[in-house]
């Protein structure tokens, strides 16, 4: 009998929560021979990432995973041997009682948000005793050996390596993208940002032509304001100076990976696309999820302190300046121009960082090992 894992996801905002849990569920089922049930409270968001799914189905099978509609109350069925509450979500009513009633209570894990902050290493794997006698364990993804690692399928880097120029051209043509010779290809997936205009102004006058690919999302309002267009249709192409802007449809996770592989620079947001851009091995710009009282700045600085190790002082300063400008509402033009002399160095650094992260066990593997050690 396969071991059953129940993963619970509340879609709070955007697609980061469901993006992470859907990738994790697929990998646990495909690579670790587990029976995985993914419980989602907003199947409409799930369909955006998995177009073959049905938004109204209370139960369906997708890519080896049993996807279930989040129940108002836990149904009368067996609890899995592992229960994961993603990102501190509240479990369905009655589930904790069902867990406590088991002869051998399941391993209860809180899969937390990704962070490079130093305190994460000390909290990873710690228990939190509950009033009902259960123990909830904290599991932190991260970038160091003493954390839970990053999501990475076993075949990911091999597929990335096999994605050659011919595959790249075919993928872009299927999206209706034709890039002029010598143009730099950039992807942009971000939250609303008032500094978008200053960055686009810089790209428009840059000596190097740029083709900017913008998947459908929240940044389109700011992009339309800069272009003077109230509505930006998918597939529309706009040109201003050296800059070509093209709006893409919202694509599946696998196609988004390929889009990142195609590009010379990737501006990403949140958690899921942030990690996938690192596996793409190209320079990137992270738009971190905004928190009250700018608490997200500490997380940004913690990652920058880690990521810039190995860069020259000048390149590290330029990269840090760009990320701070994008996330702290500062003009982007000067920061973008300051990065250009270091392009080759930051490109090589992105590949070195990918290799260093790939040398560590991935998140799914560490979760499975954590479960085995708990038996």
Portion in strands:
15-25%
Please tell me the CATH architecture of the largest domain by its name: 3-Layer(aba) Sandwich
Low-confidence stretches: none
- Total number of distinct structural domains: 2
Q: In percent, how helical is the residue content?
A: 40-55%
Here the CATH topology of the largest domain equals: Rossmann fold
Shape field: globular
> Span from first to last CA?
16 Å
Oligomer: single chain
Catalytic activity: dTDP-beta-L-rhamnose + L-arginyl-[protein] = N(omega)-(alpha-L-rhamnosyl)-L-arginyl-[protein] + dTDP + H(+)
Protein name: Protein-arginine rhamnosyltransferase
Pfam families: EarP
GO molecular function: translation elongation factor activity
Report on the structure:
The chain is of the alpha/beta class and 375 residues long. It folds into two domains: 4-150 and 361-374; 157-358, Rossmann fold, CATH 3.40.50. It contains 15 helices and 14 strands. The chain has helices at residues 16-32, 43-49, 95-100, 119-123, 156-162, 165-174, 196-204, 220-227, 253-262, 272-280, 296-307, 313-327, 333-339, 343-358, 363-374, and strands at 4-9, 35-40, 59-62, 65-69, 82-86, 107-111, 127-129, 135-139, 184-188, 210-215, 237-240, 243-248, 265-269, 284-287. The strands form two sheets. An eight-stranded mixed sheet has the order 3-4-2-1-5-6-8-7, covered by helices on one side. Strands 11-12-10-9-13-14 form a six-stranded mixed sheet. β5, α3 and β6 form a beta-alpha-beta unit.
